[in-house]
Design brief:
heterodimer; A: about 260 residues; mainly alpha; B: about 300 residues; alpha/beta; Rossmann fold; Alpha-Beta Plaits; 2 domains; six-stranded mixed β-sheet; four-stranded antiparallel β-sheet; 10 helices; 14 strands; transport (chain B)
């Protein structure tokens, strides 16, 4: 047996991507449709009466935020269901009995969930170009933020999937925590537009940093410096990895 | 021969404080068919789950073909196949895909010819393109076995393999176990269908309330603990055992129609000829005689009740 179980990781990754293909309407069409609706309502109907934000038309301004919002929710929901479902159907016994390390399992599941999120993010980006003029000033940074955010929030979703013991718990974090944070995270506005004390409060919202960094890679303007955004997302990733390391070391909610 | 599975002083206490296993020691030889017997909740599944990595042990050490299951888990798990008691499958995958998935998960490169062979052996080949949720319960169980064999394991664990299984599948399963044994695969199974252990297993381990109370070759166990019985069907019914026969450990069955005598199968003198002579002397006519051997079930009940 080699040091790394590549066939095992590949098997998980492929099985997850096959699941995506089986549920292509739900996985891809739904987020795209939702985004199109956002463009119609915010970008065209309301946006036509809005001033420019940071030198960018409102319709174009919300594009990076919308992509980020989709990346977060998709990464979390894909990865959490991917590991929760085997727990629920008990097929997880096979993962636990296989000669594959915890890290390899995580990489395969998170990799698949992130791949799917990135694909959807790119589809939304392409869709957006039909509605508003989008330009990308720093494509390298754009890709970096896209990949890092997809990976980090897929990792976060994986944690939720391991923690959850019921479908209700599975839904509770995304709906009660993540959705408010994304809506208040500057996807539809610049936090400069908020009155005090909300502007300061917003700085405690992690999503602000993600949206800001991502928007900077498009238009060269952000609510906070791009370096801070990058540090933040790396720190959040490190936190998720640390929790995951603890979970696998103790067998929390996996091994009695 | 060195054991292919060696378990030493393995204990398991769950977080609830319940102790499922008390210092289990066991060695299973390569190519053996070993049956773990015990009532529900005795700890059979816990023991298997620990060996296979599903449950962590509280203390002790287990090695599989010389590989420690904790420090060298890749090598150890790579040669183990597990068919758990409960059917749990990705119901949306096809039969062929889910079996290939298992092979990949265990680190083996694809081998379509081998997978085809397994699916044919288990009468699944015609169904290879079907989704798992379209299959009957028996077929799903066959898929579970195919998955466990997909990576060519040297040791196969079958947890209650025939619980709720029809006659055909049961027969196919035992044929398969024999074929595997011929190839040198070690098979460890749990069951409470005791006649199966008697028929299939080279050795039997009896587990009760988390303790391995006995490990013995099946034949030796039968010889050592086995009782034989003589039942005499009489011409006339009897209401009580006649005083002339009061020295014999006899009992009446079938409404006084049958007289049953149990004796030690290994005793040099069974006493049968003498009993028959005394029956004749007492004027008791009989129309049929039948002798039999006690099953493993009787032995097991005896063991557990005596609290060995």
């Amino acid at each position: 047996m080699s040091v790394v179980n590549l066939p095992g990781m590949w098997a998980i990754y492929r099985a997850e991507m096959a699941r995506t293909r089986r549920t292509v309407l739900q996985s891809v069409a739904t987020p795209v449709l939702t985004t199109v609706l956002y463009f119609i309502v915010f970008g065209t109907a309301i946006g036509s009466r809005m001033h420019q934000v940071g030198g960018v038309g409102y319709g174009a301004f919300i594009v990076p935020g919308l992509i980020m919002l989709t990346l977060l929710t998709q990464g979390i929901s894909n990865a959490s269901i991917a590991i929760y479902f085997p727990k629920f159907t008990k097929t997880i016994f096979e993962l636990l009995s296989a000669p594959i390390s915890s890290l390899e399992v995580v990489l395969a599941y998170v990799g698949a969930a992130a791949t799917k999120s990135i694909m959807i993010g790119l589809i939304i980006l392409v869709t957006a170009t039909f509605f508003v003029p989008v330009r990308i000033m720093h494509p390298g940074w754009m890709i970096a933020f896209l990949v890092l955010t997809a990976l980090t929030f897929s990792l976060f979703g994986f944690l939720i999937g391991i923690w959850a013991e019921s479908f209700e718990q599975l839904a509770i974090v995304p709906s009660l925590v993540v959705t408010p944070l994304t809506f208040l995270g500057g996807a539809f506005y610049s936090i400069d537009m908020l009155p005090q004390p909300w502007r300061t409060v917003s700085l405690f919202n992690p999503v602000v940093y993600l949206v800001s960094g991502f928007r900077w890679s498009f238009y060269g303007v952000g609510d906070v410096g791009v370096g801070i955004s990058l540090v933040f997302i790396l720190a959040f990733m490190a936190l998720c990895l640390a929790v995951l390391w603890w979970i696998f070391r103790t067998g929390y909610r996996l091994k009695p | 021969m060195s054991p292919v599975l060696s378990i030493s002083a393995v204990t398991k206490t769950y977080k609830s404080g319940q102790t499922a296993l008390h210092a289990i020691d066991l060695a299973v030889e390569k190519g053996e068919i070993f049956a773990l017997l015990g009532p529900n909740g005795a700890g059979k599944t816990t023991l298997i789950s620990i060996i296979c990595g599903l449950v962590s042990m509280t203390s002790g050490r287990i090695s599989v073909d010389g590989h420690d299951i904790i420090t060298d888990y890749r090598a150890a798990r790579g040669i183990i196949g597990l068919v758990p008691q409960e059917i749990s499958l990705d119901i949306f995958a096809t039969v062929e895909n889910t079996v290939q998935f298992s092979r990949g998960l265990f680190g083996k490169s694809a081998n379509p010819a081998y997978i085809e062979q397994i699916l044919r052996d288990l009468s699944l080949w015609e169904k290879r393109g079907a989704r798992v949720n379209e299959l009957s319960g028996g077929m799903k169980r066959r898929v579970m076995i195919a998955k466990a064999l997909s990576h060519e394991p040297d040791i196969l664990f079958l947890d209650e393999p025939t619980a709720g299984v029809d006659v055909n599948l049961r027969r196919d399963m035992w044929d398969l176990v024999r074929r595997l044994r011929d190839r040198g695969v070690t098979v460890i199974l749990t069951t409470h269908y005791l006649e199966e252990a008697e028929e299939m297993a080279d050795r039997v381990g009896v587990i009760d309330r988390g303790r391995l109370v006995l490990v013995e070759e099946t034949a030796t166990l039968m010889r050592k603990m086995g009782k034989r019985r003589l039942s005499v069907t009489m011409q006339q019914r009897m209401t009580a055992i006649p005083p002339a026969l009061s020295g014999w450990p006899l009992r009446l069955e079938a409404d006084g129609e049958r007289l049953v005598y149990e004796f030690d199968a290994n005793a040099p003198d069974t006493g049968m000829p003498l009993l028959l002579r005394e029956l004749a002397a007492a004027g008791i006519d009989y129309k049929d005689l039948e002798t039999g051997r006690s099953s493993l079930e009787d032995i097991f009940v005896g063991l557990v009740e005596s609290g060995v």
